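Protein Record: Sequence and Backbone Structure Tokens
======================================================
Tokens: labelled as protein backbone structure tokens, with as many entries as the chain has residues.
Task: work out the structure tokens from the sequence, keeping to the layout shown below.
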Amino acid sequence: MHDFCFTIPYGLILVAGGIVGYARKGSTASLAGGLGTGLVLLLAGYLSLQAFHKRKNSYLALILETACAAVLTWVMVHRYLQTSKIMPAGVVAGISAVMTVFYLYKIITGGNHFPTKSE
């Protein structure tokens, strides 16, 4: 599976979560964190998609995705430990941890693998 297939929806979920957090609680931290991280992930997904069209890997995108997911995992785990609330901190921490492992796997295996062109 190619990384942009997960990165773009993941980024959209984070953007939506930041907006919802701000609308419900007035939390500017949720807005900044959700929008900031989500937009960086959307940018990384876009870079990865453009590289995919050229049948190449975007290692910049993989590094951005991994860094964002790892930092978000760390922040949300600490938030969960402070509040002990599964929603939203525990869920976001879990999703981010899975995405971090996925991105690390992509880096370790050399990025996206393209099938050879058959004639």
The helical segments are 4-25, 28-53, 59-83, 86-108. The chain has a mean pLDDT of 88. The chain has four helices and no strands. The first helix runs from residue 4 to 25.
